[in-house]
Each structure stands twice: as structure tokens, then as C-alpha cells.
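This section describes the prediction task in plain terms. A model, or a person checking by hand, is given the sequence of a single protein chain and must write out its three-dimensional structure as a string of C-alpha cells. No templates, partner chains or ligands are provided. The sample shown here is typical of the held-out split.
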Amino acid sequence: MINTSELTQTISQTAVKKKLPKGVRQWIEVAPFILVGLILVCVFIIYPEIKSIWMSFLDYNVMDESKSVFIGFKNYLRAFVGNDSQYFYLAFRNVLLYALVTIPVGMLLGLIMAVLTNGVKHGQLFFRSMLYLPVLIDWIIVGTIFLYLFQDGQSGLINYYMDMHMKNQDTRYRLFCYDVLI
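The expected answer:
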């Protein structure tokens, strides 16, 4: 038996392929994947950068943004040549020293450890595991914190507050359940 929906779908796909040039078809196939990354970059990187640049031209009020006043380059003048310039230059020097020291030293130590671990004949798996162990321990700690936060009853912080606000509701509809997390 011929399935008509599959047949029409195949015919429409071949018709689209014949109508559009190859480059356009490739962009249509790749666009959803690129758009997700592009949206995330715009929301979490580009927008905050533009917002922080705009905020640098304001006498920014954290509590009430509507009370922020445009002051132009006064913040920059105060940072570079004003009375507070010593703090700016001290912070700039600290960041520069930190970047110039920690990045090369970290890369050099990582390279040395990789070469030494790769050159070991016996116990190479053990040394690789020991070098990767700090990465695993971080995630184990995060998981343990989440387990404590979402425990059932009075001991889990999140579920405790949800129980306080959901007194007359069924507790099965809580946001997180400890049994599900395990």
C-alpha cells in the first residue's frame, strides 16, 4: 500500500529542491541551528554589552532605573583623570597582571602535565583520572547541593517554601520532587 501523506511529502520536498538553488537549500537546512546560537549570543552577550555601554554614560540608579540621568563622558573623565583615577589604574593594573600571569602559567602547566601524563608507560589511566578528578568533584558537589535543596518535607529549602505557599493545593504538583531527582 502506498501511504499518500508520505508520497505528497516526498513530492513536495523534491519540488522544493528543484525550485531553489543548492546554496539556498543548504542555508534553509542549517538556519535553525545557527539561529539558536545567534539568539543566545544576542540575548546573553551582545545585549548586555550594549546595555553596559549605555549605562556608562548615565548616573545610573540601581534601585529605580527611571531616575538615571544622562551625564555623557563624566564617568570616563572621573575614571581616567579625576580624583578616583588612582582606583581605576590600580584595578586595571591588577587585571592586567592577573591576565598576563595566570593565562600563560595555566597553559604551560597544563601542557607540561599533558606531556608528562602521555609519556607515562604504567599507570597512564590513573594519572589521567587524577588530573580530571577536580572537574568531576565540582559536578558532584553541585548535584549534592541540588539534592539537599529539593528534599521532601521540611528539610529541602525549595520544597519547604513551596509547601508554605501551596498549603491548600496537592503537593504532587510541586516544582521539583526529590524522588524524581534521584
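For orientation: Residues 1-72 form one domain.
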